[in-house]
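User: Hello, can you help with two protein structures?

Assistant: Certainly.
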Amino acid sequence: MDTMGVGFALLGTSNVKFISDNDADNIFSYIKAAGINRFDTAPLYGGGLSEERLGKLLKNIDRKDFILSTKVGRYRPYSEPIKDPKNNTSDWYDYSAGTTEKSIFKSLERLNTDYLDIVFIHDCDNYINEAIKYCLPVLYKLKSQGIIKRIGCGSNFAITHENFLDKTEIDILMVAGRYTLLDQSANKLLFAKAIEKSVEVELASPFNSGILASGTKDKKARFDYLPATEEVFKKVKKIEEICDSYNISIKCASLNYSLSHPAVKRLILGLVGQEGLQSNISDLDVKIPYELWQDLSEIGIQMPIESC
């Protein structure tokens, strides 16, 4: 299934219930059975724990049968619990050449592989110049050696991606949460630049940390990693009411919206069990009525490009 990949952040420590090895094995079996072969992780997730556990899951799969990415630049102590999912105080940022190279080889070891299909420079929003000057040349070198196949930028901010497209030559972007029913900031300039430069886009966090999956029924729902505000709940309620009038769930509309832009090749979704995975796959097979998008546009949500 080329339009969906899975992010394995939850195999590290997180602010939600820990996934046991047995549950991880079962979830991974569902993922493989669904034909999904795009997997993403990072040394940030559990301070290497996610990479370590994913490496074990991948051990018996032919390496050519999956697309694997990890990241460099943002790090966390090994297996440390998350106190603040948006800005964890123990995280650190290091885009130096030495740390970048060391990080890649640690990731290769943890993931039980001798090459990485994609490496993203991770969350360098406040360190763009350092990342371009020191980190990127190391990734270019490793790409020339065949250790990395493609180089990308991973960020929650459209402006960070725009900077990389303007100042560098990269292959792919992982844009988190910036083309959703609650935030279309990637469609102002970023997606046009990506299409112009033939840079692939993967869209992570289409549910903006959960509220666009649960809707208003979950009063503890998060938006961009933090508890949703009353203002966000009010907007989600309006979206939900329009979706309900067409007998379409807000989750279904959210997935289809985030994948609708021609710049977006693939959604990267979080780990869910068999029922959730099947629900996501089924939702992406739903044809959303054009009129639903029209109604959403009347409350300020940009029409999907393909529907215009």
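That covers the first. Now for the second protein you mentioned:
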Amino acid sequence: MQRKFNVVIERDSEGWLVASVPALHGCHTQARSFDELDTRIKEAISLCLEDEGDIPAPEFVGVQQVAVEV
């Protein structure tokens, strides 16, 4: 069975691509290239599903950037 998850990808201050899966607590990885990141996040998702078991897939609503004064 194939499942789909939303993945958030950001670039950190050192140039690493960082991917996280909001639906799976603690499911994240990093890589230098998108190809490598794709492989790594699929592995991370598989490992997280082994730990968490069957969870319902959430519905994607959107992404929003919020500005705050610091």
